[in-house]
Amino acid sequence: MIQEERQLLIERQLEKSNRFLLQADEMIALEHADLAVNRYYYACYHIVQALFLQKQISVRTHSGIISQFSLHFVKTKIVSVEDGSLLARLFQLRQKADYNCAYDFSIDEAKDLKEPTHRFVESITEIIQHL
């Protein structure tokens, strides 16, 4: 992939991440907690995808994204352990929100994800801009 193509894909991932953050916030306002959890996870997923494109790291699965993020960015102290944990936690919560019919998220649980998720996306965006 040539640099121009990579940069275009990075920009699209950044846009998608920010769009999903806004959608998650809107879902909280509408009190759709499970949809907010889903969108918060995908906001983080897409920002990490942008980071991986920037660093030319290739992954194929969601669990691969989490493990490679930990390996390349948490263990090297580029990002905090808290941010690594947030990504893994959001993945688990998204699985529960999407597939576990026996569990309903409260709106307060979803609201508790808002600030850390916004901070995560901002932090990874800064890293991308300085690479």
Overview of this protein structure:
The mean pLDDT is 95. The chain has a single domain, classed as Four Helix Bundle (Hemerythrin (Met), subunit A) (Up-down Bundle). It has helices at residues 3-29, 33-55, 62-74, 81-99, 107-129. The protein is an all-alpha fold.
The overall average pLDDT, rounded, is 95
Q: Approximately how much beta-strand content do the residues carry?
A: under 5%
* CATH class assignment: Mainly Alpha
Number of domains: 1
CATH architectural category: Up-down Bundle
Provide the structure class: mainly alpha
Name the quaternary structure.
Answer: single chain
| Superfamily (CATH H level) name | Nucleotidyltransferases  domain 2
The total count of strands amounts to 0
Measured between the Cα atoms of the first and last residue, the distance is 18 Å
Percent range of helical residues: over 70%
According to CATH, what is the topology? Answer: Four Helix Bundle (Hemerythrin (Met), subunit A)
Report low-confidence residues grouped into runs of 5 or more: none
> What is the helix tally?
5
Order of helices and strands: HHHHH
Q: Identify the overall geometry.
A: globular
The biggest beta sheet, please?
A: none
